[in-house]
């Protein structure tokens, strides 16, 4: 099929590359000239495992193209997928200015019947508005169908998730448009659920809000485990073995971040509020997350008292492993709080340092390795659970620190498996989340 994808961010690029991989001809369009220039050369502007290989392969086999020109990209396409950003506005609602502009801009280039599939996350009712915008602007002699096709990929495994999704949601008014979308996705062999447009929009928000709630729930259980002397890892495992609960998203830690959960939860709360619905459980999900992001700093203050002049190492800056995305990363608030309290912070992240510098600037220092970050530190904070941190020689790490103290915000180190010599390490202190500290 002939497909265009508007927006080459995490979602648009992964979608475009994967649709080319399953045999479609895909034009990816973005207004960002720098991105398009890099992509034309087969260089991905974002870090996503497996993306580079598929990008280069499909450019070479002539199925994947990049352009900043709507005219070139949209001409003769059967499906146009919209994957532009819908960031958070100041009042918590979704900022729909990019998607509205994209829809208005593309409408003047539509010459033939086409399906517009909205993959961007948009509040319930938005697609009706977008359809109206299209109808008002498009040539009246062509048929334009609008389909809601929300995306569920996770950054860090975007390619895998696109090729092996749990489900594809298609919200459509027209059976023909839904059938065409199913045909497009057929090679993926993924279960498809077809609904009306508003239900499809809601499935996305309800799913993300539920996952965020699950994270806040286990974090509250963790805080209780800590004071009661239980071990949240065992508790989560025991809970997760119950098929009605499931083990995913039960990892206690310092809260969720990223470009989706925080903004989608707030957008759903905004929608509820504007319809006079008190979505109490979701309000509390946000409040718990805000507290949880501050947890390591709170623990450091109760351990050290005055943080002035102390030096702390941050392990990880990205909001989660396997991505360079810094949007709403807990590392931002942790760095800010620590420096405000007079501490010096040196951070190490395997891939997110350049993006972190754009946000944190020179308020903190950046190291080239975990050991360099830990050198002379009074304590280290595990902020992102990058697999490489689990492989570290902890004894060697403690050796270079000023004080052998770890605040583990992601429970990556397991005291039971740290060898006994480490437990006897002079002065070693270990503060996990939801488990007894080792002092
Ligand atoms: P992103 O910020 O990484 O990328 C958006 C891209 O759209 C940018 O490259 C930008 O230049 C481009 N763009 C903006 N206006 C444009 C226009 N008029 N024409 C063409 N391109 C334009 O965003 P993202 O993370 O890929 O998210 C896109 C959408 O998908 C959002 O609605 C998001 O909520 C949703 N979503 C994201 C994820 C995720 O994990 N990132 C997962 C599921 C859904």
Automatic annotation (TrEMBL):
Give the EC class as a word: oxidoreductase
| UniProt entry keywords in alphabetical sequence | NAD, Oxidoreductase
Pathway(s) where this gene product acts: Nucleotide-sugar biosynthesis; UDP-alpha-D-glucuronate biosynthesis; UDP-alpha-D-glucuronate from UDP-alpha-D-glucose: step 1/1
Claim: NAD is one of the keywords in the record:
yes
Q: In which domain of life is the source organism classified?
A: Bacteria
Identify which residues the record assigns to the active site: 260 (nucleophile)
What catalytic activity is recorded?
UDP-alpha-D-glucose + 2 NAD(+) + H2O = UDP-alpha-D-glucuronate + 2 NADH + 3 H(+)
| Positions with a binding annotation for NAD(+) | 30, 35, 86, 121, 263, 327
Enzyme Commission code(s) on record:
1.1.1.22
Q: Name one GO molecular function term.
A: UDP-glucose 6-dehydrogenase activity
Q: Where does substrate bind?
A: 204, 249-253, 257, 320
One Pfam family assigned to this protein is: UDPG_MGDP_dh_C
Q: Where is the UDP-glucose/GDP-mannose dehydrogenase C-terminal domain?
A: 313-415
Q: What name appears for this protein in its UniProt entry?
A: UDP-glucose 6-dehydrogenase
Q: Record the organism.
A: Calidifontibacillus erzurumensis
Taxonomy-wise, where does this protein's organism fall, top ranks first?
Bacteria, Bacillati, Bacillota, Bacilli, Bacillales
